[in-house]
Structure to design on (409 residues):
């Protein structure tokens, strides 16, 4: 059976970033990756400006930082100076305002005392040329590339793009994801399950995981375990970049998802991975005739909730990130076991655990959990510790790889 790393390789080999689109600087662009170099359309600052509230002066007038000057102008931010200052003159100036011609330093207001007759006394000020002055173009020059293709848009990049006049930029878009839960036993979360029925927990869970990964996810609801029902919903889902199914990929009589996918020209690249939980995982692609983008990706996750959760983090999230031109991950840290732990398993196991930082590095401890249906147990976890196959008495201090799915404590 295929090892996890080999299966991950097969998934990522199919992916290239989604073709660029235009995006505005709103919340939907946050976290996306630039698909072009961005150059500034102006010098920044565009004029030489004051960095302090105080007086614009000619440094040569105050050789020892002390003296008296005539105040001939007042310049606030957003206003232009009305005149140059001459020898022995100063202009009252506020932070962000343009320096008047001939001024080459700003004296902070705390070093000044206003006298009668429109004069000001400066004492003990730092008035080297350039003091408290931000020269034009200090931050960037017109035409200079300030953000490179491949940069992820964080709040500071938003601010910079706005500064250089780029209210719209080219980015790799967030993937569109469709999520379909399958199973005759499933009812909507708002319904009261009848005997032998359960609520669809996987749909909302996977929707949240996709959203957390930065994708635009929609729910296709629930499909019954019948080929006609599956064909209809899968066809709908195949309009998106990624289709995630949950349930119906194991070896049961009504596990019809593999057949339904084949019927719809989805090419299965693997089915079953050597891991626990999550063994029945299926991955397929459907090439796109209509664009130069990557093929549509199809993940058939096992129906047990924790299997679906772990498979998403190990395979789907990296795929979504690669479509967005982000480093795919998943992220692992090395952590030492807090307390002895006995475990017996026939496949490498991703066991719900609590990861925390300590003075000496990462620590990890499995949380109480009885297996792949136990989603409740996972609410106490923030990570998955990777345990080897076989029968082991793991000792406190032993070091394990831990799959990080969120911020640790
Ligand atoms: P399957 O992979 O279809 O064989 O389902 C495996 C187990 O997961 C069964 O016990 C299902 O009832 C359960 N299951 C399947 N789909 C869901 C779902 N959407 N929400 C919660 N449990 C599910
Ligand atoms: Mg089923």
């Amino acid at each position: 059976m295929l090892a996890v790393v080999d299966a991950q390789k097969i998934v990522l080999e199919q992916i290239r970033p989604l073709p660029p689109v235009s995006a505005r600087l709103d919340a939907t662009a946050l976290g996306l990756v630039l698909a072009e170099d961005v150059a500034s359309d102006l010098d920044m600052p565009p004029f030489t400006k004051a960095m302090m509230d105080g007086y614009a002066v000619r440094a040569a007038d105050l050789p020892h930082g002390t003296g008296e000057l005539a105040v001939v102008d007042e310049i606030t931010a957003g206003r232009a100076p009305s005149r140059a200052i001459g020898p022995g003159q100063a202009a009252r100036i506020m932070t962000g305002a343009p320096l008047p011609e001939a001024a080459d330093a700003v004296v902070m207001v705390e070093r000044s005392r206003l006298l009668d007759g429109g004069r000001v006394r400066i004492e003990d000020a730092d008035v080297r040329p350039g003091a408290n002055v931000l020269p034009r173009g200090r931050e960037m020059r017109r035409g200079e590339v300030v953000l490179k293709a491949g940069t992820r848009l964080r709040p500071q990049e938003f601010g910079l793009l706005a500064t250089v006049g780029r209210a719209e930029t080219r980015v790799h878009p967030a993937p569109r994801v469709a999520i379909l839960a399958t199973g005759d036993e499933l009812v909507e979360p708002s319904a009261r399950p009848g005997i032998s029925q359960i609520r669809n927990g996987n749909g909302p869970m996977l929707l949240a995981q996709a959203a957390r990964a930065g994708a635009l996810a929609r729910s296709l609801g629930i499909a019954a375990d019948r080929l006609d029902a599956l064909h209809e919903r899968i066809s709908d889902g195949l309009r998106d970049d990624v289709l995630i199914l949950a349930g119906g990929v194991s070896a049961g009589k009504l596990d019809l998802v593999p057949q339904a996918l084949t019927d719809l020209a989805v090419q299965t690249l693997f089915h079953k991975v050597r891991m626990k939980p999550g063994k029945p995982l299926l991955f397929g692609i459907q090439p796109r005739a209509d664009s130069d983008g990557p093929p549509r990706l199809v993940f058939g996750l096992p129906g047990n909730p924790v299997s679906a959760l772990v498979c998403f983090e190990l395979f789907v999230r990296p795929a979504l990130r690669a479509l967005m031109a982000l480093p795919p991950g998943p992220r692992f840290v090395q952590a030492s076991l807090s307390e002895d732990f006995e475990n017996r398993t026939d496949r490498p196991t991703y066991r719900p655990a609590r990861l925390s930082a300590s003075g000496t590095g990462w620590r990890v401890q499995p949380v109480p959990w009885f297996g792949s249906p136990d989603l409740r147990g996972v609410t106490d976890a923030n990570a998955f510790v990777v345990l080897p196959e076989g029968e082991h008495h793991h000792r406190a201090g032993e070091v394990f790889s831990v799959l990080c799915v969120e911020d640790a404590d």
